[in-house]
């Protein structure tokens, strides 16, 4: 699979996919998307990178430790839950507000996004960790 | 000092100190025993502090709310009965710990030893003062557990481990669980866990006795008490418990823990007594146990074994006397039982301590190897004689008085029951007394009298130091004191304790000499017969040995070993019958049950319920997708080689993404398609590493069977869904509307699927990401476990 | 509900069961995957009202008064409907949320199973479940 064609395509597609995944994550509250979908999208994009460049070659320029991601994600999701207790609400209770931003107009900001980012990181970390471990083998 | 505070301190001081013991032990080394003994003394003094109040006839009752939702409080209830047992626990505990400082070698793990003893002491005191049945149960089990730990103190000895397990299974397992069930039944009848409430309310007692569950409740609570006090068939754990260090046997297995069952019987006496069931169960068990255990004691060659059987027999006296009496008409039985409970604790603890001394000095406990030690150990001999004669019921010692009372109570109950019991019960009592007399004499004769057994004994044997003799001497002094001046224990200890059982004040008069009565005659007969039996002692013991050899199955221990010794093996055999391995074997019963429990009712109900409406108005493009799905699935099933099958499954996954679009689920469609991409990649990665060496050839009969199973499953699913979607169940309001309605208002989100995931049901989502987390960890472990193997 | 969809789901279920009964471990895993697909479709389709819109509320940031969100069992209304027409508008979001997480978890579990199969092959050199049982003794 490590042909020039796939590599050239991957160079264009992977950044696009990563951006798309982040946009899926952020707009998830109002549009189709969210942490799970964004996470799987990200994992797919990175796996495309791994396949087209080969795991060993791609490690030279891109070698994150995915176990950190799902560890941190789980921590973040739990912290989001504890945070609402500290704020005086029930576990994992969320709140939201509307912000007026100069370019975007009115934007909804929900505290649930913290939890969603946690989910996003766990999905990315978990799937890519499995993927990479298997590829290394 | 505030009295409830003193009681709570007496309970929790030992617990608290038990935690500190290992740390203290590092500083004070083997002197830790004295510190522990000090705690016992403090507990004892705290109880002395509250005793004037109790002797005046008051009770201390104090409780705080613990689990209010089920009506469980943490409370203390102190009356004469509980104070008596608590005095025994703390007082004898103090003496035992002082004795242990000399008895236990300094090389032993002393911190653990004193820790367990203190824990036991605290639980015992907590148990008797519990005002709540749940609280009582918790402390009750704690005493069983600490007893288990102490019996198994020498963990390397297989007999210790065996004895510890046996006691745990029988007391905490059988007895404890039966007691818990009994407590719950009692709660079901009365609606309360509170002991004083039940004791104080006459109408509740009547209600209990007339209730349908009365017999079951009484039986279960009695089983709990009998298992703890080694009565009836449960006696078998106590002889094996003698593997514990001797001070522990003296403390737990003669003076206190085994009294817990009797305490419970005394505690529930006002609730259950006065019924036929009570008489048969409690008195009957007591009468049978006292004779059987007394008879078995004759065979023992280990002195501790002999004392164990004698303990069982003596406890049976007390049990029988509690059984004789009714709460409305307590007569002599309750007094006699309570008095004997106290006396037994004193003389039996003395004897155990003496055995400890003898074993310590002469290095053996075998009665056949001992003998003629009276000259070398004169003080020990005197103390032992006092203890043994008190047990035999010789005047003027305290055992004589309670034995006389026992005879009198037996005659009374026999007379009130009429023929043939007026002869039978006194006869059983005398037989038990004769046996007691015989083995009591054997203790003195076997150890101290007769010829010195030079072969087995060390050259020089001498009296031990004052530290070991002191506790035994104190107890022996009490034995004599209580015998000559019975009014001392009567007015200060027994009267409050008895009024705790019969719930009214009582005045008892007792004196050593009370004229020529039937009881005196019975005592004289007992001594006469006892001497005759003692002459035949060895013959009886030999006969028992012969009998055991001939009939090994005629023993409770045999059945215990059969059941519990082979429990692991049998469990393995049974589980192998069910856990056979291949999925096929499990699937058959699953399918069968599915058909019976789901398909069958649906078919029956469908006849009368709804006309099924089929909806065939499917757009053609959807139909094409459905046909493609089925085609790819069939291909995945029938293609033998891996790669094409995986490609078919992957195509199937993408098609299902399209189905989600038909079902108006955009989030699902995106996720499904992305996830399918990853699944395919992982599949291909694995398959590229696993060459396909194995191609399954399905035999024809198995193929038919599997197709049949699959068809059944498929049609069950079809029918369930058909009826589920057509309202075989009454319609009810859907929860989803709450989400649709409140989503924007509460969270500001418009995509309700995501709102449910991160706002409404986020705790579930947290659980789900943990699953992903665990799958990743599992993969890591799988791939790294290899490194360790090779 | 669509009878053909129902039929498809049941047939998938049957095929999945058939595959689980095989001796070949990879085939078993394929069977598990097919069963999961079938169950996902089942849950989503059973939970679907006969709606005409995905569960994404459009435009307004406040609840829309023109829709009725209450069930009225006597009138046979079990979904958010447009007034005066008794036509259902939204699909059930709850089942979709359930299945969304199920898909991602299924992905992780499938990966786990595959690696388990790979490790079994490494240790015992076979993919035959019966042979494996014999080797393990």
UniProtKB/TrEMBL annotation, chain A:
Bilayer disposition of the protein: Multi-pass membrane protein
GO cellular component: plasma membrane
The UniProt record lists the keyword Hydrolase: no
Major place of residence: membrane
Domain Na+/H+ antiporter MnhB subunit-related protein: 5-128
Keywords: Cell membrane, Membrane, Transmembrane, Transmembrane helix
Localization of this protein: Cell membrane
Segments crossing the lipid bilayer: 12-29, 35-55, 67-89, 109-131
PANTHER family named in the record: NA(+)/H(+) ANTIPORTER SUBUNIT B (PTHR33932), NA(+)_H(+) ANTIPORTER SUBUNIT B (PTHR33932:SF4)
Protein name as annotated: Cation:proton antiporter
Organism classification: Archaea, Methanobacteriati, Methanobacteriota, Stenosarchaea group, Methanomicrobia
TrEMBL record, chain C:
GO cellular component, one term: plasma membrane
Predominant cellular place of this UniProt entry's protein: membrane
Pfam families named in the record: Oxidored_q2
Entry keywords, A to Z: Cell membrane, Membrane, Transmembrane, Transmembrane helix
Membrane topology, as annotated: Multi-pass membrane protein
Transmembrane segments: 6-21, 28-49, 94-118
Localization per Swiss-Prot or TrEMBL: Cell membrane
PANTHER family xref list: ANTIPORTER SUBUNIT MNHC2-RELATED
The protein's name: Cation:proton antiporter
Organism, scientific name: Methanosalsum natronophilum
């Amino acid at each position: 699979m490590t042909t020039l064609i796939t590599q050239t395509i991957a160079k264009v597609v992977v950044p696009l996919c990563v951006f798309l995944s982040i946009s899926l994550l952020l707009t998830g509250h109002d549009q189709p998307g969210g942490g799970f979908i964004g996470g799987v999208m990200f994992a797919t994009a990175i796996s495309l990178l791994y396949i087209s460049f080969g795991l060993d070659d791609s490690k030279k320029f891109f070698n994150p430790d995915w176990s950190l991601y799902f560890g941190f994600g789980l921590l973040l999701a739990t912290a989001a839950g504890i945070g609402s207790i500290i704020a005086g609400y029930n576990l994992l209770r969320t709140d939201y507000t509307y912000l007026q931003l100069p370019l975007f107009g009115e934007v909804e900001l929900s505290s649930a996004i913290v939890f969603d980012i946690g989910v996003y990181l766990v999905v990315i970390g978990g799937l890519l960790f499995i993927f990479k471990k298997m590829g290394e083998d | 000092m505030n009295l409830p505070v003193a009681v709570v301190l007496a309970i929790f001081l030992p617990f608290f100190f038990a935690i500190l013991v290992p740390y203290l032990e590092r500083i004070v080394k083997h002197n830790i025993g004295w510190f522990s003994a000090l705690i016992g003394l403090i507990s004892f003094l705290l109880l002395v502090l509250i005793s004037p109040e109790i002797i005046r006839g008051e009770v201390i009752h104090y409780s705080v709310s613990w689990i209010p939702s089920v009506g469980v409080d943490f409370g203390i209830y102190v009356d004469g009965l509980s104070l008596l047992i608590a005095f025994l626990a703390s007082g004898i505990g103090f003496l035992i710990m002082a004795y242990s400082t000399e008895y236990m070698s300094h090389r032993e793990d002393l911190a653990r030893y004193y820790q367990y003893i203190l824990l036991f002491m605290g639980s015992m005191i907590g148990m008797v003062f519990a005002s709540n049945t749940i609280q009582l149960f918790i402390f009750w089990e704690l005493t069983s557990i600490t007893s288990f730990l102490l019996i198994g103190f020498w963990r390397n000895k297989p007999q210790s481990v065996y004895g510890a397990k046996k006691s745990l299974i029988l007391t905490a397992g059988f007895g404890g669980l039966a007691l818990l069930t009994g407590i719950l039944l009692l709660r079901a009848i009365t609606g309360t866990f509170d002991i004083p409430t039940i004791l104080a309310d006459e109408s509740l007692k009547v209600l209990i006795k007339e209730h349908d569950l009365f017999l079951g409740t009484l039986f279960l609570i009695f089983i709990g008490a009998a298992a703890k006090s080694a009565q009836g068939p449960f006696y078998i754990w106590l002889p094996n418990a003698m593997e514990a260090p001797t001070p522990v046997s003296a403390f737990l297995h003669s003076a206190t823990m085994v009294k817990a069952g009797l305490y419970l019987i005394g505690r529930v006496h006002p609730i259950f007594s006065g019924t036929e069931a009570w008489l048969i169960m409690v008195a009957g068990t007591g009468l049978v146990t006292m004779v059987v255990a007394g008879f078995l004691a004759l065979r023992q060659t280990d002195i501790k074994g002999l004392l164990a059987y004698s303990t069982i027999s003596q406890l049976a006296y007390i049990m029988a006397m509690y059984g004789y009496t009714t709460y409305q008409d307590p007569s002599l039985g309750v007094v006699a039982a309570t008095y004997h409970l106290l006396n037994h604790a004193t003389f039996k603890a003395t004897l155990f301590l003496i055995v400890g001394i003898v074993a310590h000095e002469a290095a053996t406990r075998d009665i056949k190897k001992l003998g003629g030690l009276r000259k070398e150990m004169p003080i020990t001999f005197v103390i032992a004689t006092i203890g043994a004669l008190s047990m035999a019921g010789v005047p003027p010692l305290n055992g004589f008085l309670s034995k006389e009372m026992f005879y009198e109570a037996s005659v009374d109950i026999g007379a009130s029951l009429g023929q043939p019991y007026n002869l039978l019960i006194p006869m059983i009592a005398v037989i038990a007394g004769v046996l007691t007399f015989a083995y009591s004499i054997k203790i003195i004769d076997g150890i101290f009298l007769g010829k010195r057994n030079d072969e087995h004994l060390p050259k020089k044997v001498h009296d031990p130091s004052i530290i070991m003799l002191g506790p035994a001497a104190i107890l022996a002094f009490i034995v004599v004191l209580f015998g000559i001046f019975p009014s001392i224990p009567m007015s200060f200890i027994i009267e409050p304790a008895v009024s705790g059982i019969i719930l009214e004040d009582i005045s008892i008069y007792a004196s050593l000499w009370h004229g020529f009565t039937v009881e005196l005659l019975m005592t004289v007969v007992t001594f006469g017969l006892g001497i005759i039996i003692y002459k035949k002692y060895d013959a009886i013991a030999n006969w028992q040995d012969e009998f055991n050899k001939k009939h090994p199955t005629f023993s409770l221990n045999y059945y215990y070993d059969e059941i519990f010794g082979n429990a692991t093996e049998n469990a393995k055999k049974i589980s192998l019958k069910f856990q056979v391995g291949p999925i096929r074997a499990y699937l058959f019963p699953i399918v069968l049950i599915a058909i019976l429990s789901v398909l069958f009712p649906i078919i029956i109900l469908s006849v009368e319920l709804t006309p099924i409406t089929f909806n065939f108005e499917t757009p053609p493009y959807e139909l094409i997708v459905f046909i493609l799905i089925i085609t790819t699935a069939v291909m995945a099933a029938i293609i033998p080689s891996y790669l094409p099958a995986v490609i078919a499954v992957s195509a199937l996954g993408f098609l299902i993404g399209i189905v989600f679009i038909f079902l108006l689920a955009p989030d699902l469609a995106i996720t499904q398609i992305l996830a399918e991409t990853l699944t395919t990649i992982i599949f291909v990665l694995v398959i590229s590493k696993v060459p396909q060496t194995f191609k399954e050839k399905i035999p024809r009969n198995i193929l038919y069977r599997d197709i049949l199973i699959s068809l059944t499953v498929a049609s069950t699913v079809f029918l369930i869904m058909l009826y589920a979607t057509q309202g075989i169940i009454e319609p009810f309001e859907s929860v989803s509307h709450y989400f649709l309605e409140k989503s924007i208002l509460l969270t500001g989100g418009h995509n309700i699927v995501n709102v449910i995931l991160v706002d409404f049901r986020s705790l579930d989502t947290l659980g789900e990401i943990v699953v992903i987390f665990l799958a990743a960890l599992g993969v890591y472990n799988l791939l790294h476990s290899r490194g360790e193997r090779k | 509900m669509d009878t053909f969809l129902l039929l498809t789901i049941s047939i998938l279920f049957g095929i999945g069961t058939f595959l689980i009964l095989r001796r070949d471990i990879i085939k078993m895993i394929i069977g598990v995957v097919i069963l999961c697909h079938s169950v996902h479709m089942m849950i989503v389709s059973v939970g679907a009202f006969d709606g005409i819109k995905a569960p994404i509320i459009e435009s307004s940031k406040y609840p829309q008064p023109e829709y009725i969100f209450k069930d009225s069992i006597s009138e046979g209304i079990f979904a958010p409907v447009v007034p005066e027409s008794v036509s259902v508008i939204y699909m059930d979001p709850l089942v979709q949320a359930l299945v969304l997480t199920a898909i991602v978890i299924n992905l992780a579990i499938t990966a786990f199973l595959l690696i388990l199969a790979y490790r079994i092959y490494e240790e015992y050199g076979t993919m035959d479940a019966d042979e494996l049982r014999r080797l393990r003794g």
